[in-house]
Description:
The protein is an alpha+beta fold. It folds into 2 domains: about 1-115, 2-Layer Sandwich (Beta-Lactamase); about 145-220, no CATH class. It is about 45% helix and about 15% strand. A 5-stranded antiparallel beta sheet has the order 2-1-5-4-3, with helices on both faces. Strand 1 (about 15-20) and strand 2 (about 25) form a beta hairpin. Helix 2 crosses helix 4 (about 145-165) and helix 4 (about 145-165) packs across helix 5. This is DUF8082 domain-containing protein. It holds the Pfam family DUF8082.
Amino acid sequence: MKLLEEFxxxxxxxxxxxxxxxxxALSTFPSLxxxxxxxxxxxxxxxxxxxxxxxxxxxxxxxxxxxxQLMAITLDDTHQLILMTDREINYALVGTAVRAAxxxxxxxxxxxxxxQPQAALVDAPKEPPKLTEIAQPSAAHAEPQQRFNQHISxxxxxxxxxxxxAAKVLLQRVRSSWPEGESxxxxxxxxxxxxxxxxxxxxxxxxxxxxxxxxxxxxxxxS
Length: 223
């Protein structure tokens, strides 16, 4: 743990987490952030796995928040270092410190997880339970894309309850990968859009909770 605390001596670094395959192994984050951190770690692990740096084996993912950001940095094929930092930091200094500490960080992660069975990381998101009763609100009195964006804005805080600040990234990921193209999304696509978001949640219970909240939000925003 002392090794992680050393990173907090770098200017702008607030909290540090060591993760193995998206599962938190050690953390200096406050306990009240543990649930959001666990969800963000899994999402960032999936993002890092899909964007490796073939030359250096050193990849980064950044998620910006209001007054801070999350940085996830690969240590090897299974370990990641996650830092909550100020928006403006010395990236070169942080990168140099991480590279220098990589052997010790990997050893620390292995020690921390020796007696703790790790849950298998699923390569593809799980299929959520089918909740076909999700409302399909009318797009009357508004342009389809504008109306869709209004509902998406309401969905972000609901998703953030499960994955923390990674919600913004997941929303954009589902939008940009939409089969018919992002520009063609409309309110008619909201039920399927919510189903795609729910696939990134770990358990059937979480998926059902999110879809119930999404349905309530969509119905409440009908005008």
